[in-house]
Records
---
Amino acid sequence: MRLRALLDRATSGERVNRRSRFRPSLVDKVLRDPFWVWCRYHEPPGEAVNEVGRYERMRYRRGIDHENAWVAARYPDALAVRPDFGYEALTRTLRAMLEGVPAIHQPQLWDLGRDVYGRGDLLVRDDSRGSDLGPYHYRVIEIKRARKLRDSFALQAALYNRTVGAIQGYTPDRVTIALREGTRHEEVSGRGKELDRVVSRWRELRDGAVVPEPGPPPRAAESPWRVYGNKLVHERQDLVLLAGVGAPQRARLRAAGIHRVDELWRRPPEEVNDLLGPHHGAVAYHTAQSYRTGEPIVRPGHELRIPRAERRLYFAFGTSDDVHPAMPPHVYLIGCRDGAKRQCVEFFARGAGEEPEIFDAFIDYVGDEVERSRLYHWTDYEITQMKAVMLRWPRLAGPLTRLMGSCVDLKQCIQDAVYLPVPRFSLASVAPALGFKRRQSGFGVIESMLCYWDYLDTGNRDMAEKAIRRNRDDCLAMWHVDRKLTGGR
């Protein structure tokens, strides 16, 4: 087979245009954030706000380094295709396939007849069966730094596999997905209809045939469309503002001519229940009423009951994740608001090696009679982290198990009993809705972690203090929410 024939298969005589073609890396966005995809083609001029910062760049770099190290360790002689994109890169990829190169790193894989183009991670020659290339074929290896397999990973690899099949005249049944904690061999021969649906959905978004709803604020979409999406949701009082009302229920409301929260609060509850059923109808109606009044509404027939004890502690963790190039994941900060003493205390580590020390200090602060205390947290994040700490430091397993026995998920207590004018029951949404104001606006967990990393690198205590203030506000926010809803009872 000649190179010209392979190029014709890959291009169908057409030119590649990055905006009008589908690349496999968009699979995740189509599945998870279709509003982002729609914005890519249709957002009003000037609305994009690039919020990709230092952390995102570090994570991207770690992913590239991980891929390069994985390939170097297993296929040290793999041919690296350069340049990164374009007709020249495609030509070099196809020439290497014709020559039977054992491994091809970052190959250009195009199937423009199906609107698909992209750059894969690795192609490996397999001599178990022939193809139009000769007595061999190529199979796809996708390399992900993630620990767990996501469906989008499998579909992305399956799309590359189908593209390779169209080029070489033989489509393997399986792909290999290399994760951080092992390699998976995924059967993809039966996923053609799923791939067609994903690409078809992308075409609808590209062509404006459908306009998807944004997500709930404050993350209506990912960068660079987050700010625009948030603004759009609030301007049109979109139904995604109703926490606890899912996409199927919102679709039924829109089919009935209800598109805005302020339209919903004018409807009688019986009508909303008829549309959504008694559970979702009550959630939609009362949450809309909470937006109308600006006040929390206790669910009819319920009472907000938060487990109590003699001592009330509101605590939150600051954590360092695996994006750091040298430091393993760990809890670097435990902040606590003591409700009775009305004081905040912090236990701060400098590096992963000091993690057990701050847990020892926190356990001592709670004291031996832990059953006399209730430790309030928001979501199960702190519980998950304590379980990870127990695995890293087995000697802490007993004390932390006792501690967890006194923990109370404040979010779950409130969400089960109260309707609030919020798009989601995150602390970042609930606390401001009840009048709490942070001292560092727009300073989130990522910014805190970066400040901690700067402190590790430089020893600048001011960086550490920024992370501590943010954590202290989390603890104060929980205390504020509790008092606002219960009066301190």
Note: The chain has three domains: 3-205, 236-293, 311-486.
---
Amino acid sequence: MNKQIILTASFLGLIAVILGAFGAHGLEGKISDYHLGTWKTANQYHFYHVFALLFLSTFSRAKSPSIRVSFIAFTIGILLFSGSLYLLSVRSLLGIEGWGFLGPVTPLGGLCFMVGWVGLFVAAVKHRA
């Protein structure tokens, strides 16, 4: 599990760096300041939860269901929360203005983040140092 978490965090971290650079250098002047701010929010939460995944990997000997729940919830949260915000930011460039379902996806990702943090809390309470 530890290796799986680190590999996932590494991959998602790479994607966060690429998307952050793209937002800073490739989108300026192409989307509104509002949408650029949304992109930056997506990227911040993306990074925060990559770090959360890396922290989960420190529970290397804990075979707890809470760690598994946190791992899955943080990963899905990044995909849903940050992914939907990334797409909402550039939907006019992609021609997907009609994708109204993206708005409600964002809070589902946020809920996944919350579940992940609760799972981490439970794992920390149960983990013996």
Note: The chain is about 80% helix and 0% strand.
---
Amino acid sequence: MNSPLRSELNHCCCGDVVVDGERVEQSFILPESFIGFGGHFPGYPIVPAVIQVLMAQLVAEQGQLISHAPTAVERAKFHRQLRPAERIDICCVAKMVRGKAVIDATLHVGDELASSFWLTSV
């Protein structure tokens, strides 16, 4: 399904998606006018966690690591705030963990880990 939010995120991609087997990488730069900043927080916009998860889902979809929306987010850790105009590098890796298929997603700004989580389906 292509929502206005997903469409706007697709316009915020920078560079080509890189697919290497079970690993997919893509970068985003979200302008201050990005719809996802609305209300989060007035005067000090930061990328909400739900947008970070959606960006990782889009990257996993682009690399054909998943064919449907994940049903759960596990092991989520948010280490730093993501701000407008920062280049956010996303890496998604498909792996099996204790017999369970997961997408291991990490978001970086430069060399700094911003967040990490698993996308899973029940």
Note: The mean pLDDT is 94.
---
Amino acid sequence: MPLRATVIPVTPFAQNCSVVWDDATGRGAVIDPGGDLDRVLAAAEEEGVTLEKILLTHAHIDHAGATAELARLRGLPIEGPHPGDRFWIEQLPQQGAMFGLGKSESFEPTRWLGHGDTVTVGNLPLEVLHCPGHTPGHVVFFDRGARVAFVGDVLFAGSIGRTDFPGGDYATLIRAIRENLFPLGDDVRFVPGHGPMSTFGEERRTNPFVGDRAVGSNG
């Protein structure tokens, strides 16, 4: 049975928090619980999902701000991001104050992730790809069977993640997209951190920052 998902925009930044689950078992995870936990938990309950873990693409406040609270409320382990984002996790209280999102807590992930690792949702494996550039420790979760990826703030429909935050790097981000994401296949659909879904093929062809006709590309 396939991976299923429902996307809940959370926080004033309309961050795409995803509840994902294995349809065969009903067991699932929350990807990037940035806030609005009442809505996230209501969505999981409506779908009959038994939450088993939290998965994090990166540790900016709109993606990770409610992680510690959710882990404590439901006794959930935290998997991700890559250790390169430890700085951002430690800065979560300051991030919350800076952006007016209220109290946020730092935390220690149960499991740090690296490129080539695998996480599970129920009985379904998701491949982990380290895609730095937006943050040093950003990871992407890829379901090869369902041909879908959860890419956080690496890539958007028609755009890419910002690289002007501490630890960001434009060239590194472009390389991660072209070397780690696009080779997965044009047919792969992706859930970005903000905005509508797209496919890697559509972005490879048309994205003005990283597509075939982008400045500096080989297309």
Note: The chain has one domain: 3-206.
